[in-house]
Design goal:
4 domains, binds iron/sulfur cluster, 24 helices, oxidoreductase, alpha/beta
Length: 437
Amino acid sequence: MSDAETPPDTTPTPGEQGEDDFEPVEVFPESTEMDLRPGADNCYKCTSCDVSCPVAEVDDEFPGPKFQGPEQWRLKRKEDASVDDSIMSCSNCMRCDDACPSGVPLSQMHNTARGEYVDEDMDKLSREYIRNRILANYGTLAELGSMFPRLTNAIMGNSLVQQINEKVLGITAEREFPAFATQTFREWWNERGGPQVRSEDKRVAYFHGCYSNYNTPEVGKAMVRVFEEFGYEVVVPKQRCSGTPMFANGMLDDAKRAAGINAENFAGLIPEGYDIIASCTSCSMSLRQEYPELFDIDGLEDISEHTYEAMEYLRIHEDLDSALADASVSEQSFAYHAPCHARNQGLDRQAVELFRDLDGVTIEDVGDSCSGISGTYGWKEEKYDKSMQIGADMFDHMEHADGNVGMTECPTCSMQMEHGTGYDIKHPLQLLEEALV
Ligand code: SF4
Ligand code: SF4
């Protein structure tokens, strides 16, 4: 990792130590918080994490989370301190975190190891590095592309361009490029003149992330309208990517810069009574867990403690069940998939619990498998087939469910659901808007 200093030379003199002994490496000598070896010592090798790992299930060369996490951290020897390159095959789905009964900080270990591997061992001129940097910085590209959305959509939707992307960059040509909206969420927000409701005691700051801004502004609009319907003052601070695709590609310097900007723009609102709301479960995961785990920046602890997924927040603070009991929508049947990052925040059942009694709606949970795309993982040419293998259970369950419209909170799960089944996909907030606004 770029912030780490060179470990001090603690090599014992001859005779101090037997040949089979070793000194653990001081990976982060400047910070006890980032030394993950105590967490590694909590591992009692039950292998629950390995069993839960969707990548290990389809990739025989991937040694699994136990190796990537506690084994690498605990067993590093000074002369063998480099991170194994298989860390780049971890998709950062974080299912192993959820599976560990012993509180081992697996994804923190993986993210830290991946950052260290990219910093120290990856050729910065390699195709893999350039491709990963592009995918990790989707928000920057989207900002440029959405200046001329129709032109960008035509270019990126062209099959020849997709073939070139695959050959030159290693971005799969099998997937349909997500179209940019002709008006971003932020453009809509500015056009309407910002908040329409003012409140001293019901205040939220919306973290829309990249995808709701550039690709699916209808999700952001739904979020604003639903919260205003409940009397909340919604503000939309300037923001950068949550960092999720950067963590997954070991681009921790990029993620730290983005986290710093987000800290500057959001942390100061908390003492004024605002909580932070995200419509994407990977964004809320990042602000809640990954920021404080990985970065020492003023305000990130406060942000972590005050961040919520949008529907979770309403369930905590409002009587949503009663509001929905009096509502109805036109007949619709949904096949709902809980994203891995929603699962990790304990939110995997909430959409089904909320909507199952809504008049006009049938909703079915399509099981606990990973969708397989995991952000940027399924966009990599060499991972595409594995991504589809991981997603096969979900596709199968969707096709056997009554509904032929998908529902999920995660934008990339939504891409994978649509890609694997051809279904239209809705965000739960869109159904909430339809029912309540
Ligand atoms: S984060 Fe996901 S892909 Fe990575 S090791 Fe854990 S379970 Fe496997
Ligand atoms: S689930 Fe936790 S305790 Fe079990 S092997 Fe994995 S890291 Fe170790």
